[in-house]
Structures are given as C-alpha cells and as structure tokens.
Amino acid sequence: MASFGRFIRLAVGAWALLLLVTAAPAGAQQVNPTASAVKEQQLLQELNRIQGRVSIPDQRSGVLEQPQGREWREFRDVTLRWIGGIAILGMIAAIVIFYLTVGMVRLEAGRSGRTIVRFNAFERFVHWLTASCFIVLAISGLNITFGRPLLLPLIGFEAFSEWSQWAKFAHNYLSFPFTLGVVLIFLMWIGGNIPSKVDVEWAKRGGGLIGHDHPPAYRFNAGQKMIYWIVVIGGGLVAASGYALMFPFYGTGIEGMQMAQIVHSIVAVLFVAAMIAHIYIGTIGMEGAFEAMGSGEVDVNWAREHHSLWLDEQKARTGPNDGQPQPATAAAE
Amino acid sequence: MARMKFLCDADRCIECNACVTACKNEHEVPWGINRRRVVTINDGKPGERSISMACMHCTDAPCAAVCPVNCFYTTADAVVLHSKDLCIGCGYCFYACPFGAPQYPKVGNFGSRGKMDKCTYCAGGPEADGSKAEYEKYGANRLAEGKLPLCAEMCSTKSLLAGDGEIIAQIYKERVMKRGYGSGAWGWKTAYRETIES
After folding, report:
1. What is this structure's pTM?
2. Of the residues A88, A141, A275, B173, which has the fewest C-beta atoms closer than 10 A?
3. Nearest CB to B47 within list A38, A72, A73
C-alpha cells in the first residue's frame, strides 16, 4: 500500500507540474514584452532626434533619425529664395530708380587737376584681392541657391553640373584668400572706421546723396564705415559658417551644419545686396570715386567735397604742398 | 507598379549586422562608407531595441528637393536614386536627409567631399542595367534581375523587410496581431508620412 500511496503522490505531482508548464505561456501572454520598449514618436518628441549605439567604426551614424531636415529644406527651397530675391533684386531696382532720377553725383567744382593719394598700393591690393574673390564667391554661391530653377533649364543637366562642380571648387578654394582679405581689411582700416559724432551729422544730412549738400567727413564717412563693418562682420560670419560646412563634423553635427548653412546663406545674400550698392557708388554712382581704388589718387576737389575733414588733416600734415601726393603719410593714416 | 519600402521589425532585430555586411560585400561599398547600419537604442537597458537603417527612399524625398544640380530621380518602383556623374559633392542632401543616408568619400583635397554614395535599394543607377559602369559606381542591380535588396533577403530573423509597401505592411500587421505587440514601423512616419496601424 505504501508503494500505491507513493504512486498517487507522484501522479498528482506530475499533473500539477504539467498544469504549471502548460499554464505558463498562457500567463505570459498577459505581459506585453514591449511595455518598456523605446517608442519612436516618444523619442522624437523628447529630442527631435533618435540616437543610439552602432558597432561600426563610424560613430556619427549612431543618429538614427533627425526629421528637422524637413524644416531646413523649407528654408533652402523657399525662404532663402524669397530673402535673396527680395534683397538682391530690390537693391538693383532701388539703384536703377535712383540712377534714373538723381543720376551720378557730380563733382560740383569740377576737377582741380591736382590729386591726393587716398589708398596706397597695399591697400588697393587688399581691396581687389577681397573684391575679386567676393565676386567669384557670390556668383558660385548664388548658383547653389538659384542655379537649379534659373540656369539648369537653359543649359541642361550635364553642362550645369560641370559648371557647378567648378563653381564649388572655386567657392571652396577662394574662401581662403577672401578670408585673408577680410582680416587685412579689418586691421588696415579699423583706425578710420570707429563711429563718431561726425557720422551722426553726416547721416542726418543723408550723406549729401540727394541735392548739393556735402556733409563733412574724415577719411571714411558714415556710409563707408557701414560698408566696412558689413565686410568685417558679414565676412567674418560667412567665413566662420562656411568653414563649418567645408569641414563637416569638426565641431558641428547635422543640426549645426543646417544652422551654419542658414547663417551663411542669409548673410551672404544680404552681403551681395550691400556690395551691389558699394559697387554702384564706387563706379557710375559718383564722379571721381573710382580713382580712389583705381590709381589710388583722387582729385583734390573730390576730397574737398566728400571728405573735407580728411583733406584738412592731410593738408596739415603735408604743409604748404597743398595736396601733393604723399604716399607715406597716406599709408600712416 | 510597386511602391518599394524598407521596414525594420525592431522586435525581431538582434543586431547581428548581417545586413550591413551583406550590403558592403554585394556592392563593394568603399571603405569608410556604410549604406546600411544597425543602431541600438537604450543599449543595455530595459526596452532596448535595434533598428537597421539605410536610405528609406522617402516619398517626396528631401535630398532630391534640396539638390542644387537636381541629380536625384525616382524610379517607377519609387526607389530614390542619383547620378554620380551629376553630383558635385556639396553636402546638401546630407543636411536634409532625416536618416543620415548620404555619405561622401573623402577624395578631394583636404578630405573634401567626393561624389555622394547611398543605398540604391539594390537598384543601381542611371547606367544600363547590370553594366560594368553601373556596378562600379553604384553596385549591383538586383532589382533588374527580379531580386529584392540583399540586406532584407538574408536577414537571419526576417526582421528587415523589403518589397512593396502594402505587402510588407501586411506581413508586419499579421506578425503584430499574432504575437500581440510591435514597436512600430521605425522611420515610416518621417519617410512616407504614414505609419502602420495595428
């Protein structure tokens, strides 16, 4: 009987075990194994990107998803084209209207025939180094934003791609001499470009652009100072943001590069608009102005009308030789 | 025509990286470039998931929209491809891509960007299907041979699915129904602006 009792116990135990085993999966199905699992939408809401670990050497590929590229796309394809279009075409339109209504700012006293050194050879070299780089950078840069809708349909895919490839190389390489030019401009002309009380008066009288007014100015008037600071600050910003794009992942991630591209392109189109005005006033906008950066010597009457205080300074320095070319003193300014 | 998509069932991915290896080998992808990679989120913590990710061949692809030279095109199967002959290596597609798919070999001076490389959905490029020129630039064209992308084909757990979007969505839905859970179709909302309701 003892053995029968043992058999019964064994059988009941086996049944109980069997019940447990079969019941286990049924119980487990109540538990959701993904209850604690990471959720895509939740991760995106938290950080606007999803990042994890990768076992391949390229650690940057650990960023799984970053949907903000969509916003950047909207900026690049729509917003920037509006900003650039309005800034550049608006500036050109304003200049054309100004030129047609007011015309070239003439030398009221005519030419005296005597000249005075305004920019020495080094200053002119730095100016033209920066200017020539700027023109290539501006055209190749505008090509990236406006080339696809405007130029590509005209010349076709192959030709446009070939041109854009060279434009990209030019844009990248000329950034170096351009940056050097901006640095030299900053150091070379900082002395004459600190805003002062004279600028307030000059600005109040509208720079004498309209009518026959000639507000006094030292070597650089308020308008030129503005151009100077646009070049220094704008040039500094485009250089910094440009190098962030040229050397990806040196200190920036994708978001950083999107930001850099936004800064780079907005500053650049405004820079181009400002330089169009600068080119206008330095060429067909004002009689006798181009010579300052051409030969480096301006007519004394031009200096008297546009930079009276500067002319007085130069006269005081050069003494009785009124307005004789004195490269050394001009450079020291 | 089919609308080709990728779907990674994160509840099945075991981060074996076979898809990564298969892709590199099939297309002889240059050193330093990974058209596909496996990202593990919350590594070592409860709820950890691994997701295999490559170019998702987005609907209304952002890369194609921002390309300054318009080098992208979409095939009849809705696969997003590009021409390396037209690409100038500017990096814009890479700023716009939500999935970090475009990559650039460092071939230029100072390691500047060369022609962009990305997942082709094993569909080659604009050259003649199966030609040597196509293989050298883009890798194998399996789609032209009637085969699906190799990464998905050889996935050991059948986590990574490739094929017509509706069919793979159906497979995924059935899986979710059968096992009772699913962490969703990763990247679908961003890439295709739709997700799989299950």
Report:
1. 0.85
2. B173
3. A38
Which among B43, B47, B88 has CB closest to A165? B88
pLDDT band of residue A37 (cuts 50, 70, 90) is confident
Rounded Cα–Cα distance for residues B26 and B17 (Å): 14
Rounded CA-CA distance B16/A327 in Å is 74
Q: Which residue of B has its CA nearest to A247?
A: B112
- Asked if A65 lies within 8 A of B47 by C-beta distance, the reply is no
Burial profile A238-261: b = 16 or more Cβ within 10 angstroms, e = fewer:
bbebbbbbbebeeebebbbbbbbb
Instruction: Give residue for tokens 């000639």.
Output: A214
Q: How far is CA A185 from CA A39, A190, A291, A294, in A?
A: 54, 8, 19, 17
Q: Which tokens in the block code for residue A191?
A: 């002395």
The answer to whether B57 and B121 have CB atoms below 8 angstroms apart is yes
- Cα angle A76, A79, A84; round to 5: 90
CB-based contact, B51 to chain A, within 8 Å: yes
Q: Which residues of A touch B39 (CB under 8 A)?
A: 50-54, 61-64
Structure-block tokens of residue A74: 């909207």
ipTM: 0.89
- Surface of B (127-166) touching A: CB under 8 A: none
**pLDDT tens, position by position, A140-185:** 999 999 999 999 999 999 999 999 999 999 999 999 999 999 999 9
Q: Alpha carbon A50 to chain centroid distance?
A: 30
Nearest chain A Cα distance for residue B55, angstroms? 11
Helix extents (H) in chain A: 2-28, 40-47, 69-74, 80-101, 121-150, 152-155, 157-189, 197-204, 222-229, 235-246, 254-282, 300-306, 308-318, 327-332
The CA-based angle B164-B165-B166, given to 5 degrees, is 95
- Among chain A residues, the shortest Cα distance to B84 is held by A161
The length of chain A in residues reads 333
Beta pairing partners, B105: none
